[in-house]
Amino acid sequence: MKKRRVLIVDGYNVLNAWKSAQGMDAGTLSDARDALAARLMDYAGFSGQKVVLVYDAYLGDRTSRTEEHMGPLCVVYTQKNETADNYIERLCDHYARDAELGRIEVRVATSDLVEQMVVLGRHATRLSARELLVEMGQVEHAGRERIRLAPRTRTTILERLPEDVARRLEAMRRGEQHQEDKKP
Question: Taking the complete model, does pTM exceed 0.85, yes or no?
Answer without folding.
Answer: no
